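Q: My labmate handed me this sequence with no annotations at all. I'd like to see what the chain might look like in three dimensions before we decide whether it's worth expressing. Could you predict it?
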Amino acid sequence: MKQIQRIKHMERQLDKLLAALHAMDKALSGLTKMNDVAQTLSDYYGSAEWRKDLADDEAGRLPENLKRGVLSEDAVWNALQEYHEKKKLISNEE
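A: Here is what I predict for the chain of 94 residues:
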């Protein structure tokens, strides 16, 4: 690779790395702002309200077109677990 080509190639590599780092910083910043959201979900998950909502869904009392991933035990549990794992990664890096 000739000098000019090499420098241009390396400049593109630097730009890619900087863009990825910027995107990661933005994502991590957004994650740190999710404490209240995660706590709200955690409080709802398994609560009396959640159990009633789940029972009503299972009984067919909720609209068919209602998005209801929050009533899935796995979806909420997995999301909260992943959130806490990512938060640990952030804490360990600081």
